[in-house]
Amino acid sequence: MADLFQHIKRLTGKAIGDFQLIEDGDRIAAGVSGGKDSYTLLQVLEALRRKAPVRFDLIAVNVDSGFSGYRKELIEQYLQEHRFPYRMASADCDRIIKEKRRPGSSYCAFCARLRRGILYTQATELDCNKVALGHHLDDFIETLLLNQFYAGTLAAMSPKLLADNGKQTVIRPLVYVEESDITEYSSVANYPIVCCACPVAGDEDQQRQRMKQLIKQLSGEIPQIRNSMISALGNVHPRHLLDQQLQKRG
User: Fold this and answer.
1) 73 to each of 10, 38, 48, 102, 120, how far by Cα in Å?
2) Of the residues 59, 77, 128, 163, which has the fewest C-beta atoms closer than 10 A?
3) Residues spanned by the domain of 61
4) Coil, helix or strand for 163?
């Protein structure tokens, strides 16, 4: 299993180098939700930090959305046992969503915006200039397909972009790491996995699950489909697209 961790670490290091995700003097707030992805992100970044040619600080930040049954104490215990600097933050997302969400709009999208806002606020208070999120390769290509199929846009995620508050830079160092590798590693890493306890968990995730299944089915015929799709995101030919603004500029 050490080989698998080294594989994940190597791909993470490659992404950091390719997109200049981490620079000397950075102070990084790593979002830790209690899921396999964020635990793996934290562990890999810490391993890289210890041997990196540049100096950077790493602080784990957990956001408790306030849903009943969320076992944040398990996350805090893990962070304490492994001696990670950390911050635990809380919010009453359920109440805010019920009061402020527009009829027909996505509960999950509204909740995600609230949690990101809290995470950015914590990063500001901790004097962090970057926020690291645990989105992996599969998240990128699933988002690409979701936007194409349901939103009519050609967009995915970015490994590096300015946060909505205009202060921090959001980085996604696991962009080259497949979810299956994270799942396999986390199965033996003894992470205390904590469910988000969201009252609508699973109800609004059907579209993403369909994309997961589609990619899984196609991978039987095209084994390299994930790598091909992530490569396509970095190999764009604007002249061969239908964006009218691009056509005017061209």
Assistant:
1) 31, 16, 27, 32, 22
2) 77
3) 2-204
4) coil
Give backbone dihedrals phi and psi of 60, rounded to 5 degrees, phi first: -80, 135
Q: Which residues contact 102 (CB under 8 A, 6 or more apart)?
A: none
Residue 221 lies in a domain: no
How far apart are the C-alpha atoms of 205 and 222, rounded to whole Å? 25
Q: What is the pLDDT of residues 72-112, one digit of tens each?
A: 999 999 999 999 999 999 888 777 877 777 776 677 777 78
Name, in order, each residue with C-beta under 8 angstroms of 50's C-beta and a sequence gap of 6 or more.
none
CATH of the domain at 155: 3.40.50.620
Residue 88's SS3 state is strand
User: Is residue 74 packed enough to be buried (19+ CB in 10 Å), middle (13-18) or exposed (0-12)?
Assistant: middle
pTM reported for the whole predicted model: 0.93
- Residue 133 placed within a domain: yes
Q: Which amino acid is at 18?
A: D
State which H helix or E strand residue 219 sits in.
helix 206-221
* End-to-end alpha carbon distance in the chain: 50
